[in-house]
Structure formats: structure tokens, C-alpha cells
Design goal:
The structure holds two protein chains of two kinds. By secondary structure, chain A is mainly β. Helix content of chain A is 7%, strand content 49%. A five-stranded antiparallel beta sheet of chain A has the order 1-2-3-7-6, with no helix packed on it. Chain A has a five-stranded antiparallel beta sheet with strand order 10-11-12-15-14, with no helix packed on it. In chain B, a hairpin with a 2-residue loop joins strand 16 and strand 17. In chain B, the strands form three sheets. Chain B has a 22-stranded antiparallel beta barrel. A four-stranded mixed beta sheet of chain B has the order 4-3-6-5, with no helix packed on it. Classes of the chains: A mainly beta, B mainly beta. At the A-B interface, helix 1 of A face strand 15, strand 16 and helix 5 of B.
């Protein structure tokens, strides 16, 4: 009997796991990350930029490590600021950014950039300028980054119907969708000028997931509400795997702002 | 009549009967295989728990004609009906209770169909040629085979037998039907010796789509199946017997006209080993222990249907392993005390993959890999209180656990039930107290009060977007359902003399937490074309009452008439009728038997059913009348050849039963001939 057999195997496996349980050394978090760039400042601080995946148009978290040498621990006494910039030959513009500031528990300076367009040799390239301050000394370093277009867009822009502002809406979660309840997180930023991209905190969202090939949605979704700094958090439910479209309807002070769609295509097994 | 008189005799001499049969094998007293006569037809005598003899006559008739289907026998038994989704594998219903509420077992083995649409009830894996007996125990008294509220159907398979001198017997037969070109072939081989008995049995059935009484062919009503079994028994000593059963049933290319898809295959494999201690002396105890495993695999198939919105694969499986141990003690001369410990583990898994054009396939679990484990203890005492009065008392306690797959399965259900832990546990208690006795020389009676509980089914608890074609809704289980509880009273009165046997029975069931479909208007259907989503709720209460009447009249030595009627009336706390309750049904049969010739004509009349449940989207059903006739002639000096023929639905009525899905007409006139040979 397969069932009983699997119970026995599980039991034995559990005994084995518990008996062999040892306190392991903490795993180096960078093993799960992608190294995007490695450079040195003027006074030879080693600066490495990581992300969980390669950089794509939309919201990207950047994990910045600063070391005195390549085999010394990550420095945690610095402050890091970043500035994304797209150089388009005739003009340049920035993008929404979240500043790393102080180091986190693992010694990373974690910031984020909403890259609003991909790298295109004919159009322009992205550079993130990191300003690292330590013991009253600030050193800057330029990190060029390659930004690709994702298979399914994770950032949408629109002109708000209520005040004609230019909005940029980036999907943060779900990053790895599952069948079931998923965290749904979206960021909203506004382009005030080429250099000013502040977060927008006064939107009201409604999300409507749909499976276009079957014409059905999913129940019990939680509309995202403002958490902080342009981040809105809710829940989205996928009743099966396959291709879903999440319609995101926005209003502000009772007035329609607009709708953006995200296609989310995933496989459960 | 012999069987009936025998039954009556056993009722009077209860304790003697126990002795004669060796082990008091629960509700049915089965003759020791070693004592059986050498003739081909093995007969069993049964006495159900509350002193009700079930339809021996009909069962014997159908067992003697094993070219018929099991379902055709079930439909003619008192209190029984069938839910029909196709021309194959109908679901048995007892007094309006379907397999959600019934315990359907095979030789006491728990088994579960692998189809989320109930296309493969356990009864579909049994063939008449392999059936020794069907023990029907209505109501919560059927607790020997597990916890339930509707009763139990235990299909007892034929066992290999022993003989003083080595014997080898065989049989084969074939049948041809005009409607749908049905063809049946069967064969069996029996080996018997003092120590060892073996029995092999094969049945093949195939049928094309049938025609209705209107002359129209019902597309997708074909089927093919092969059923094979191999059983054996070995006498370890005078008191100990080891027996085993292997059974395989493979069905393929099975059409389900009332459903949007057919079945590519339905396969079951069963293995069981039984050790039996049957005392030589009557005063010692007798026990029986069994271990078993069975697997059921099932795959639906929409590739033969036109206009399929999206191709889907929907395979399902169940795996069950279990055991039981039961013992009987004769305490003093007046108590027969019986105990049984049983348990099983079951895995039920069903998935669905949809293939949209030009897109990645979509996948979900429809039975979220449910693992169940149930153990139970059953105790029963039958006490000959006075010469004409017996008391039956019994108690059963079960503990059941159910757990869904911790990954995908739990994630799916949490969309609807965010607090669901993935586990459910049920403690189920059953009890009954009955009195049975004789009133005068010819009549007997019984009353029984009982209480039962059942665990909701896998579909009711954990089903996920299971489309039900009957009402066109997707069903989502409710893991918070309470156990369904029922307090019941039933009684019988029977009068029998040389010429006449009259039996009246009545029942009243009161349910608490009655599980019923409920519209979930906030949810959107998954299936393309479905009307919406329904789930299940526990209604505060429901009532089901009714009865059966049977009259057997032996007009002459050669002519016998049987008249039966059955009726159930149910309503729930919302003031609505219960769903899928068969209407008033009257059946009559005349049987003429002389020497080697027998002839039977039987008719069935169903009243219209206008009491329908709106929450299940039921339709009303008009009345119908169907007439069948059949004859058989034994040939040869030793009557080893048997020629049978008949016409089903003689009047070519265009009709359907209230429990038939999709209001699809049943087969019209069907002429058939069969020939069987025994040696």
C-alpha cells in the first residue's frame, strides 16, 4: 500500500532529520542572489550590487555590499544613497528610487529602483550612482546596469484621468505566484519632472483577477491599500495555474484615475 | 419459497441457527463453505440485523441469471433505486439515501470510487456471476460495515469451496441484446477438494449506444468492461480456513450521455486475505480476520465530444488499505455477542488539466490529495429474551482523520476558507436498540430505534470546482461541515403461511446537520458554461420517512406473484423537499415455473415526482410504466444447458426515472437471448 508505505518512509525520514540536526553555519545570502556589478571607490572600498534576479523593467530591489577588501566582512557603518539615471544621448532622466540608507541585519544596503524602460543601445543606458558615506567621507561610484524587458510587463504607466499626472505602477508581488492566496503588492510613483519621481500615497485600488481563456475570476481577493512610501498591499487569489490577468482599477477622492492590467503566467507543478 | 421458509425457520430458532452456521457472521448467516452442496448455485441465507429478511427471492432469481447486470438486480430489490448518469455503473440508492450516506462494501472491504462525478460506485465493480449475496441493512443499523446514516450494502463475493472428493466444475455463457447490440460472455471454473478450493471467474460486457422508446439513439451510451476474479480457500485445519480474493475490473470507452464527458477507463484491483476460525463445537467462539488493499483508477475523456469549449484531462484515483477482525461468542444459550474492530487508510486524489489553445495548460487539484484514516469498534448483542421475543443492541464508535495535501491542495481551499488547517477529525457514534418477535404462528415483527452519524464525503468537505452537470454548477466543498447525524425508527411486520407472505416496513429518519447544496452567489464558476458556484451547508434538520410493502403469493405450485411498493417522503428545515428522492414505485412480477421451464413477466410503475429540491435545481418527473418478460429453459438430461430469452421494455415505453440525470430516456424495447452451460 503506497499510502502506508509513504507514512513509514516519512516517519523514518523524520527520525533521520531530527537525529542529524546540527547547528549549521549561517548561509551566505549572496548565494541566492545575482551579482550585477562589482566596482571600487576612490579609496578602494569594494562595492558589489546584487539582486534576487536579473534587472527587468519595473520594481527591482538592489542589495549593495560594501567591504574594505574582498575577504573582509561587509561594512555596516556606512550610509548609502542611490540615484538611477538613464542617459539618452540628447537628454537624461531618472526613475523612482528607494534609498538604502543604513545597513540591514545581513550587512546589505537595500534600496530599490523602478526602471521605467529597458536598456536599448539605440536609445540609452542605465547607470546607478551610489553615494557611500562613512566616517564623514562620501565617495561616489557609477554602476552601469543592464535592464531587460520581462516576458510579461510588471510596470505600467498611464496618464491619470483626474489630474493628468503621469503615473507609474509597478508590481512587486507576487514574484513567485502560487495556486492559492498570494500577497499582492504594487507601487505607485508620479513623474513630476525628469529628475523628480515621488511616491503617490493617495490612490484607492480595486483588483479583479481574470483567467481570459476561461472567462472566470477568483473570489475573496483583498484590494491593496497604502502601506508606506507608495507601496500598496493586498491579496490576490489564483484558483488554478495558467495565464491570469489582474485588472487594477484606481480611483482618487472618488474620481476615476484609470486601469492597468498585469498578465501573470505561472505553472504550479 | 424455500429460502423464505428457511429464513422464517432461522428466525424462530435463532440460537440454533447460529450453531448450524458456525460463525455468526454478523448480520448475515452464511453457510459454511465446507457444508455446501455440490450443485452450482450457491445459496446463502441471510437475516438482517433487525430481523428483516431482504429480497432473497429476487436475489436468487438474478444470481441464477448471471448474464444480467448487477444494477438490474439492485433496481428490483425492495427499497432500492439507481441514480443513472449513463447506461453503466449506476449509483445505488436505498430509501432515497445515496452513496454519500450509504456504506457500500465489497466482502466487508472499504472501497471508494475514484470519480469525482460518482461515475464508478463500488457496485459497478461486482458481477452477478461472482456475487454470492447482497446484504442490505437500511438505516443507521447498518453499522457493522462502518459509520453511516443511510444503511449499508455489502456485496459478498462467491468463495471457493471444499468438497470431500476432488471436483472440477465450470460454466460458460453468452448473451446477445438487440438494443445497442449488447453482448455478454462469461465463464467460471471451480475446483474443490478437501483442503483446497479455487474459483476463477470472467465476465465480459460490451454494448453500443442504445435506442430509446422513441427510436432515437442516445449518443455516448456505449460501454465495454472485463471483470475477472480469482479466489481460493485453504483449510489449514478443521477449524481454520485461509481464503483470498483477487479481483480486477477494467472498463473502457464508457459513454455518459448525461455528463459532458465520457470515461476513457475505469480500473479497479482488489486483494483480500481472510483467516477464519470456525469452531467444530457450537459452544466455542468463532472469529474472522481480514486484511485488504484496493486501488481504483479513473480517467475522464472529452475527446469524442463535439463542441468542447476546452479540452480537459480529469484523472482520479483512490487507494485503500484496511483490516477487520470480528468475533462472535455464544454466551449461555441466549446471548450472541459480537465484536468487530476495523480500520482503513484511504487516499483520494483527482486533478484537472485544461488545455487552452495556444497557451500553457492550466492545472488544479479537484480532490486535494485527501488522506483519510478511520478506525472503529462495533459491539452487538442479540438476546433471546423470551421464546418469542429477541432484543438486539449495538454500539459503534469510530475515529476518523482526514488531511488534504499541505501544498497546492491546502492553498486552493484556503482561498475560500482562509482559516482551514488542512485537517479534520471526526468522532462518530452509532447505537441501536431493537426488539423482534413472533406474534402467533404466522407473523413476526420488529422495531428498531437507532442513532447514527456520518463523516461528510471527500467531495462535500474538500471538493474543488467539481462541475455537476445535473444543475450546471461548480461545487466547492466545505471543510467546516459538521458530521451529519440521524435519529431513526423503523419497524417491520411480516405474515407468512403456505401461500402468502406479506411484509410491511416503515421508517422515519430525522437528520441533524443535514448536508445539502447551497448557492454561493459571491463566487464565480470556473467551468465554461456553468451557471455559478454552489457549496455545501449543514441544514439544522431534515426528515425522511416512508416504507416498503411486499406481497408474495404462491397461487399454485407453479405460479407465484410478487408485488412490491416503496415510497419515501423527505423535507428539510427550509421547508423544501429533499433532493433526489425516488417517487412512489410499484412493482409486480408473475413467475411461472414448471419442471425445466420458467417464465416471468414483471412491470414497474413509478408515480410522478413533483416534490423537488430547488437548491439542487431538480426537475419534476412524469409517471411511467415499463413491462418486461423473460423465460428460461433448461436443456439436456442433466439440465446442463440453459436457454434464456426475454424482452425488456416490451411496450417500448419512452421514459426516464426521477433519479436519472439529464432526463435522458432509458432504453426502449430490448430483445435478448442467452445460453449458458454448466458442467
Amino acid at each position: 500500500m503506497k499510502t502506508s508505505f509513504s507514512y513509514i518512509v516519512l516517519l523514518l525520514a523524520a527520525v533521520f532529520v531530527f537525529s542529524s540536526c546540527k547547528k549549521d553555519d549561517p548561509i551566505d545570502p549572496t548565494t541566492e542572489m545575482v551579482e550585477l556589478a562589482h566596482t571600487h571607490t576612490a579609496s578602494d572600498w569594494h562595492v558589489t550590487v546584487y539582486a534576487m534576479d536579473s534587472i527587468k523593467v519595473g520594481y527591482n530591489k538592489l542589495y549593495i555590499s560594501v567591504k574594505e577588501d574582498h575577504d573582509t566582512p561587509r561594512l555596516t557603518d556606512a550610509t548609502v544613497m542611490l540615484m538611477p539615471m538613464m542617459d539618452m544621448m540628447t537628454m537624461s532622466h531618472s526613475a523612482p528610487a528607494e534609498q538604502p540608507g543604513a545597513a540591514d541585519a545581513d550587512g546589505f544596503y537595500v534600496g530599490a529602483v523602478v526602471f521605467v524602460m529597458p536598456t536599448d543601445p539605440a536609445m540609452g543606458t542605465w547607470t546607478v550612482t551610489l553615494s557611500i558615506t562613512r566616517n564623514g567621507v562620501t565617495e561616489s561610484v557609477d554602476v552601469p546596469l543592464e535592464v531587460a524587458s520581462p516576458a510579461y510587463a510588471r510596470m505600467r504607466s498611464l496618464t491619470a484621468a483626474d489630474d493628468s499626472s503621469k503615473l507609474f505602477l509597478s508590481l512587486v508581488a507576487p514574484a513567485d505566484p502560487i495556486v492559492g492566496i498570494n500577497d499582492f503588492e504594487i507601487t505607485a510613483h508620479q513623474r513630476v519632472s525628469m529628475m523628480s519621481w515621488p511616491a503617490v500615497n493617495d490612490l484607492t485600488f480595486e483588483i479583479v483577477p481574470e483567467m481570459p481563456s476561461m472567462g472566470h475570476g477568483s473570489p475573496n481577493n483583498v484590494n491593496p491599500v497604502i502601506a508606506e512610501n507608495g507601496h500598496y498591499k493586498g491579496k490576490v487569489n489564483f484558483t488554478m495555474d495558467g495565464e491570469w490577468v489582474v485588472h487594477v482599477n484606481m480611483t482618487r477622492a472618488g474620481k476615476v484615475v484609470g486601469t492597468v492590467d498585469y498578465t501573470i503566467n505561472f505553472q504550479a507543478k | 419459497m424455500k429460502g423464505l421458509l428457511q429464513t422464517g425457520g432461522l428466525l424462530v430458532c435463532w440460537t440454533i441457527a447460529i450453531c448450524n452456521t458456525g460463525l455468526a457472521q454478523s448480520d448475515s448467516l452464511t453457510l459454511d463453505a465446507g457444508q455446501l452442496p455440490a450443485n452450482y448455485e450457491i445459496e446463502a441465507v441471510e437475516i438482517s440485523h433487525q430481523g428483516q429478511s431482504t429480497d432473497d427471492w429476487m436475489q436468487r432469481f438474478y444470481r441464477a441469471n448471471p448474464l444480467n447486470t448487477t444494477e438490474s438486480m439492485i433496481s428490483r430489490l425492495s427499497g432500492m433505486s439507481l441514480v443513472r448518469r449513463g447506461n453503466f455503473a449506476m449509483e445505488p440508492v436505498l430509501r432515497g439515501m445515496n452513496t454519500n450516506q450509504l456504506q457500500v462494501t465489497l466482502d466487508g472491504m472499504q472501497m471508494f470510487g475514484a470519480c469525482t462525478d460518482k461515475m464508478d460506485p463500488v457496485s459497478s465493480y461486482v458481477e452477478l456471476n461472482n456475487l454470492q449475496n447482497l446484504v442490505i441493512t437500511p438505516g443507521a443499523a447498518g453499522m457493522e460495515f462502518g459509520a453511516g446514516v443511510g444503511g449499508s450494502l455489502n456485496f459478498q463475493l462467491k468463495e471457493a469451496r471444499f468438497a470431500d472428493s476432488t471436483q472440477l466444475h465450470g460454466s460458460s455463457g453468452g448473451r446477445f441484446q438487440s438494443n445497442g447490440l449488447g453482448r455478454v460472455g462469461l465463464g467460471s471454473l471451480d475446483y474443490a477438494s478437501r483442503k483446497l478450493g479455487m474459483r476463477a471467474n470472467v465476465v465480459f460486457r460490451e454494448q453500443d449506444s442504445y435506442r430509446t422508446g422513441n427510436g432515437e439513439t442516445v449518443p455516448y451510451s456505449q460501454y465495454s468492461k472485463l471483470n475477472a476474479s480469482l479466489s481460493g480457500a485453504y483449510r489449514l485445519s478443521n477449524a481454520y480456513t485461509l481464503s483470498w480474493t483477487l479481483l480486477a475490473d477494467h472498463g473502457w470507452d464508457i459513454g455518459y450521455p448525461a455528463l459532458p464527458m465520457d470515461v476513457a477507463f475505469a480500473r479497479t484491483h482488489v486483494a483480500g486475505v481472510t483467516l477464519r476460525h470456525r469452531p467444530v463445537s457450537c459452544t466455542t467462539t468463532g472469529w474472522e480476520a481480514k486484511v485488504y488493499v484496493n486501488t481504483v483508477d479513473h480517467a475522464m475523456d472529452d475527446t469524442h465530444r463535439p463542441n468542447v469549449a476546452m479540452h480537459m484531462d480529469m484523472p482520479g484515483l483512490t487507494r485503500t488499505a484496511g483490516f477487520y477482525w470480528q468475533n462472535a461468542w455464544l454466551i449461555g444459550s441466549r446471548h450472541v455477542f459480537r465484536a468487530k474492530v476495523d480500520g482503513f487508510v484511504n487516499r483520494s486524489y483527482a486533478e484537472m488539466t485544461m488545455y487552452p489553445e495556444g497557451e500553457r495548460p492550466m492545472f488544479m487539484l479537484t480532490w486535494p490529495d485527501v488522506h483519510r484514516m478511520t478506525t472503529g469498534l462495533w459491539l452487538a448483542d442479540q438476546f433471546q429474551w423470551k421464546k418469542n421475543l429477541r432484543v438486539n443492541a449495538s454500539l459503534r464508535v469510530d475515529q476518523g482523520f482526514a488531511q488534504v495535501d499541505k501544498g497546492l491542495g491546502l492553498n486552493e481551499l484556503r482561498i475560500f476558507y482562509p482559516d482551514f488547517s488542512g485537517k479534520r477529525a471526526f468522532t462518530l457514534i452509532q447505537s441501536s436498540l431493537g426488539l423482534a418477535g413472533e406474534a402467533g404462528k404466522h407473523s413476526s415483527w420488529s422495531v428498531l430505534a437507532s442513532y447514527g452519524e456520518r463523516q461528510p464525503t471527500v467531495t462535500e468537505l474538500f471538493g474543488y470546482y467539481l462541475y455537476v452537470q445535473y444543475d450546471g454548477y461548480d461545487y466547492i466543498g466545505n471543510p467546516n461541515l459538521k458530521k451529519e447525524q440521524s435519529a431513526q425508527i423503523q419497524g417491520t411486520w411480516e405474515y407468512a403461511n403456505q401461500r402468502l407472505n406479506v411484509r410491511l416496513s416503515g421508517f422515519g429518519y430525522h437528520f441533524q446537520h443535514y448536508v445539502q447544496a447551497k448557492l454561493a452567489p459571491d463566487y464565480q464558476q470556473m467551468t465554461i458554461g456553468a451557471h455559478g458556484v454552489k457549496t455545501y451547508e449543514s441544514l439544522p434538520w431534515a426528515v425522511l420517512a416512508g416504507g416498503e410493502a411486499r406481497l408474495i403469493w404462491s397461487a399454485t405450485r407453479t405460479l407465484e406473484g410478487i408485488f412490491t411498493g416503496q415510497y419515501s417522503y423527505g423535507f428539510n428545515s427550509l421547508g423544501n423537499p429533499l433532493a433526489m428522492i425516488p417517487p412512489l414505485e410499484l412493482k409486480a412480477a408473475l413467475n411461472y415455473h414448471r419442471k425445466n421451464f420458467s417464465w416471468m413477466v414483471d412491470g414497474v410503475w413509478d408515480a410522478p415526482q413533483n416534490r423537488v429540491n430547488p437548491d439542487f435545481g431538480e426537475h419534476t418527473t412524469p409517471a411511467f410504466f415499463v413491462l418486461n418478460t423473460r423465460a428460461s429453459l433448461a436443456l439436456g438430461k442433466t439440465q446442463t444447458w440453459n436457454l434464456q430469452g426475454g424482452v425488456d421494455n416490451l411496450l417500448n415505453a419512452a421514459y426516464y426515472h426521477h433519479l436519472d440525470w439529464g432526463r435522458i430516456l432509458r432504453p426502449g424495447r430490448d430483445m435478448w437471448v442467452g445460453l449458458s452451460w454448466k458442467w
